[in-house]
């Protein structure tokens, strides 16, 4: 019986670790090699976010480039972390780069924000 419990625990831990390695924020998908939010809109990173875990897109910038918000109790992984923005809200970061949407983009269409200097599709 003890052997069965130990084996079951080992399998459970291995499955949990594998799932965590591929975890993404709720609703985020990968499509054509780029990340998209739960509504199917492209997600971006900003070249001026030079300090890992720090967003410089605040105020009016954040109206056009809304941050991918995270819940206060969001679970992080190796690639996905949560940062605290200047206004105290939480934002997802992918590999240390804060992640944003682009207000003019339409769900399910190719991201148009990539045409704006300094903004790149999150991949």
Please characterize this protein's 3D structure:
With 123 residues, the chain is of the alpha+beta class. The chain has one domain. Helix content is 20%, strand content 20%. The protein has two helices and seven strands; from the N terminus they run αβββαββββ. The strands form three sheets. It has a three-stranded antiparallel sheet with strand order 4-5-6, with no helix packed on it.
Topology, please?
Blueprint (H helix, E strand, L loop, with lengths): L1 H20 L7 E3 L2 E3 L7 E3 L13 H5 L15 E5 L5 E5 L2 E2 L20 E3 L2
Antiparallel strand pairs: 1-2, 3-7, 4-5, 5-6
Tertiary shape: globular
For the record, the count of structural domains works out to: 1
Instruction: Characterize the main sheet.
Output: 3 strands, antiparallel
Proportion of helical residues: 10-25%
SS field, number of helical segments? 2
Instruction: Quickly give the structural class.
Output: alpha+beta
Low-confidence stretches: 4-22
The gyration radius over C-alpha positions equals 17 Å
Order of helices and strands: HEEEHEEEE
Going across the biggest sheet, name each strand in turn.
4-5-6
Tell me, rounded to a whole number, the average pLDDT: 84
| β-sheet strand percentage | 15-25%
- N- to C-terminal distance: 46 Å
Number of strands: 7
């Amino acid at each position: 019986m003890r052997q069965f419990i130990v084996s079951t625990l080992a399998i459970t831990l291995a499955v949990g670790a594998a799932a965590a390695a591929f975890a993404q924020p709720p609703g985020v998908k990968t499509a054509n090699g780029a990340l998209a939010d739960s509504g199917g809109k492209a997600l971006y990173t900003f070249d001026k976010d030079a300090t890992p875990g720090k967003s410089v897109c605040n105020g009016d910038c954040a109206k056009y480039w809304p941050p991918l918000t995270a819940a206060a109790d969001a679970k992080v992984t190796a690639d996905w972390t949560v940062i605290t923005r200047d206004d105290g809200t939480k934002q997802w970061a992918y590999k240390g780069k804060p992640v944003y949407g682009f207000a003019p983009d339409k769900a399910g269409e190719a991201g148009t924000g990539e045409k704006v200097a300094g903004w790149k599709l999150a991949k």
